[in-house]
Amino acid sequence: MKSLVYAAITSALLLTSHSVMAQSKLLDIQHRWAEVNYTLTDDAQEDAFESLAKEAQAWVDAEPNNAEAYIWLGIIKSTEAGAVGGLGALGLAKEAKASLEKALAIDPNALSGSAYASLGTLYYKVPGWPFGFGDDDEAEKLLKKALEINPKGIDSNYFYADYLYEQGQYKRALGFAEQALLADARPDRPLADAKRRDEVQALIKKANRKLNK
Fold first, then answer.
1. pLDDT in tens, 26-85
2. Widest CA span of the chain, in angstroms?
3. pLDDT tens-digit readout, 76-108
């Protein structure tokens, strides 16, 4: 009996330790992504994204059933694509798409539906056929799913607002952008929150200019 109790306690401790390590890895990746995305530029940013992508890939390789790891590999690859631009961007965007689709296959609700929001953003940012896989209808479907899972999130509302702006739906874009500003702060992601709010404010100004013409 004692051995069974000991085994159960040991198993629980191992699971707790693994959970803590995974959370630490997630926060580290999130913080470093924010620093690379918002504080670096040009070659320094591209090099840092490449390095961070390798680390995220190692995380995926070590935990192949972890949806959070795939989500962040996808986010890193997609923002790296934006930084690189040109022909190299499409290859990175395709890699990001594959990673985010893998995350959805594992756990579509992981990180409050972040895979839906990131994948939806890729679909409206990437050119359509014959150059890329871009598809505005698919983008909207995915972005709405992200909002269904996380209706009050800053990212889910911002990305849908940005999509609507790109579609010329400025009044609707304004409504979702304003909702994004009402999102609760994420204490563990202060830099990302501050910069996202700057992006939301910039989008609100652009939408208002369009509406006041």
1. 999 999 999 999 999 999 999 999 999 999 999 999 999 999 999 999 999 999 999 998
2. 78
3. 999 999 999 887 899 999 999 999 999 999 999
Residue 212 identity (one-letter amino acid): N
Cα–Cα separations (whole angstroms), residue 161 to 168, 169, 177, 201: 11, 9, 5, 11
User: Measuring CA to CA, which residue among 187, 191, 188, 182 is closest to residue 158?
Assistant: 182
98/106 Cα distance (integer angstroms): 13
| Distance in angstroms (rounded) separating the CA atoms of residues 200 and 204 | 6
Q: Which residue has the tokens 């198993």?
A: 11
Nearest Cα to Cα of residue 168 among 121, 207, 128: 207
